[in-house]
Amino acid sequence: EGVLPQEYVLIKMEIIPPFPQKLKVLEGKKVYLAAATLRPETMYGQTNCWVLPDGKYGAFEINEADVFILTERAALNLSYQNLSKIPEKPMCLLELSGYDLIGLPLKSPLAFNEVIYSLPMLTILTDKGTGIVTSVPSDSPDDYRALQDLKSKPDFRKKYRVNDEWVLPFEVFPIINIPEFGDKSAEKVCNDLKIKSQNDKEKLAEAKRLTYLKGFTDGTMLVGEFKGKKVQEAKPLIKSKLLEAGLAVLYSE
Ligand code: A2H
């Protein structure tokens, strides 16, 4: 944990009914996987959501209307940030594991894919953000590699009961150009560094360092309302739009 608080945007990824048996008690409510991101301007390119299979999650009442699925730790922090039905007290309606969340169909803000699915990622940290991560494989090396792992390894899909239709139709979609890395910067850097799996932590850290900074300083939007604008300019505008539309909330830790 750093000294300064980190501010995330929580993207409200809505679960599309009908709910599976395990989540049936929540049906009738608006239930979201709340994904913590530092890159709200990349939401056009979402291909899936990531959960930690062995992670512990809960469905928490945030206000009269909304239920968020995230870690208890994040729910506690949110309850001190005016995001709990009862102030300073997380209201858990249902305890869940990551396994319960795999395969949920989701509708996520700005995503060009109308329906995306929740899939397993083994490197998610439960002491950071919400434990839920939205996947943008064009611009995030972690997301690119984890999606490739699922696509290229049928045994891996089988182990986590991931249906082919939740993974195979989803292609890396260009949303930002970085002069040095092209339109699919994460794919390019992962290939250049010969990253073979989501567990290749050191190389992925290097890939993230390379793309994260360059994306912000040199990136140009290829899609959306701010197409043609620099990422630096578009990012705060897209963030404000999401917040004002009620499609996302801010979260600090
Ligand atoms: B970012 P920082 Cl396109 N465990 O969002 C692992 N990773 C997590 C996480 C957790 N518990 N919570 C959030 N994250 C990811 C988009 C994105 C992100 C892009 C490019 C880079 C990038 C789409 N995924 O992050 O350690 C989330 O992925 C590169 C750093 O707090 C979040 O933003 O700095 C980022 O890591 C937060 O990481």
UniProtKB/TrEMBL annotation:
Swiss-Prot/TrEMBL keywords: Aminoacyl-tRNA synthetase, ATP-binding, Ligase, Nucleotide-binding, Protein biosynthesis
Molecular-function GO terms, alphabetical: aminoacyl-tRNA deacylase activity; ATP binding; leucine-tRNA ligase activity
BP GO annotations: leucyl-tRNA aminoacylation; post-embryonic development; reproductive structure development
Protein family per UniProt: Belongs to the class-I aminoacyl-tRNA synthetase family.
Identification of the protein by name: leucine--tRNA ligase
Organism: Ananas comosus (Pineapple)
